[in-house]
Amino acid sequence: MLYGQEHVRRYQETDGAEGHDWNNTTVLLLTTKGRKSGRPYTTPLIYQRHGDDYVVVASKGGDPSHPQWYENLRADPEVGVQVLGDRFQARARTASDEEKPELWRLMTSTWPDYDEYQTKTDRPIPVVVLERLG
């Protein structure tokens, strides 16, 4: 099973032919700029479409702290996204309290473990909306 940087490498090399379909769901690549280093970091994340937008979850498996990629996009919301062979820039934003219930249901329909992850942590797990630029 693909995971971590091997997942990123195979996805990039094959335009997602390897790595987009994963464990009965779909994965995109999110590239953020390190808030301290300024270096690009690419993370494979489960996603769903919501209209023209892409939705991901900053779960980190229910860890008490946010994932690094989420902290990075909070510092600089302009991110790179790859879905299959489509590479584009997007603006990332945390879903509002009004949006979150609908988007959470969308994401748990594809990855039910998100509900379990939320029980493991006191932090509200953010849902992130990626809006294509241009």
Spell out the key features of this protein:
8-stranded antiparallel beta sheet, Split_barrel_FMN-bd, 134 residues, Deazaflavin-dependent oxidoreductase, nitroreductase family, 28% helix, 8 strands, alpha+beta, Pnp Oxidase, Chain A
Architecture overview:
GO terms for molecular function: coenzyme F420 binding; oxidoreductase activity. It holds the Pfam family F420H2_quin_red. This is Deazaflavin-dependent oxidoreductase, nitroreductase family. Belongs to the F420H(2)-dependent quinone reductase family. It comes from Nonomuraea jiangxiensis. This protein is an alpha+beta fold and 134 residues long. The chain has one domain: Electron Transport, Fmn-binding Protein, Chain A (Pnp Oxidase, Chain A). It is 28% helix and 35% strand. The protein contains 4 helices and 8 strands; from the N terminus they run H-E-E-E-E-E-H-E-E-H-H-E. Strands 1, 2, 3, 4, 5, 6, 7 and 8 form an 8-stranded antiparallel β-sheet that branches. A hairpin with a 6-residue loop joins strand 2 and strand 3. The radius of gyration is 14 Å and the shape is globular. 28% of the residues are buried.
